[in-house]
Amino acid sequence: MPCLIVNRSTYEEITMKFFIDSANLDEIQSARDLGVLDGVTTNPSLIAKIVGDPSKFTYQDFKDHIARICEIVDGPVSAEVTCLETEEMIVEGEDLAAIHENVVIKCPLTINGLKAIRHFSEQGIRTNATLVFSPNQALLAAKAGASYVSPFIGRLDDISTDGMALVEQIVTIYDNYGYMTEVIVASVRHPQHVVDSAMLGADIATIPYSIIRQLVNHPLTDLGLKKFMEDAAVMKK
Ligand code: E4P
Which of 21, 150, 158, 185 to mutate to test the pocket of ligand 1 (most atoms within 8 A of CB)? Predict the structure, then answer.
């Protein structure tokens, strides 16, 4: 009897997904309007950018903001816990998960975060293991039942380490064992990171809005279009 080998591709629709890495509603709306957006990732630093007066921004405001994002995008929306102890992460994560069925709880890849991921996995709450910088961290995330893992490739590049090599290692390890955890290439700094993610078969790239815009542009497209428009002008309307 042949052994059935399964991997993420066996179950998932084989498609490269684009998430926007932003908490800015205008950016999220604009990216959604492009028609290629599959989800959203936020983190406390991205939330801090959209806060007007921090002294007036409450936890309820944070939850309301996540709810507004969920109204714009019909796909996974990662909201990060803001505490360090497992029990606190569980309380906050369950509260955030109740906002909308698309909310994914982002937990740091720490001992306590790992325990929280295991708990959420058993409760059927989707998680995104964040701040991942090594293949062993990614392996632990998958074993704990994380739905997503987020290797921060740009921050590795920043310290002269090959961030994309980490993505390659994670994809290989997950495929070796058929882990269903999806790989979100995070901390994307430029369009080449998106190309490399696709070449390596990463499931998702989460991309800042400015870089999503850059993916569209090419100077030869602009030049070619200008000439086509000039030549088309000879035709009578
Ligand atoms: C996404 O999940 C991460 O929080 C984000 O990509 C981190 O990006 P940065 O390294 O540019 O802050």
Answer: 21
Domains and CATH numbers, the chain: 8-236 (3.20.20.70)
Q: Ligand 1, residue 128: give the atom nearest the CA.
A: 2
Q: Whose CA is nearest to atom 10 of ligand 1?
A: 187
Residue 155: how many CB atoms within 10 A of its CB? 15
Residue 154: name the closest of 182, 184, 129, 190 by CA: 190
Q: What is the pLDDT of residues 73-116, one digit of tens each?
A: 999 999 999 999 999 999 999 999 999 999 999 999 999 999 99
Active site residues: 106
Whether pTM exceeds 0.70: yes
In the chain, % helix, strand, coil (3-state, to 5) comes to 55, 15, 30
CA 152 / ligand 1 centre spacing (Å): 6
CB proximity list for 40: less than 8 A, separation 6 or greater? 19, 20, 21, 22, 28, 69, 73, 75, 76, 77, 78
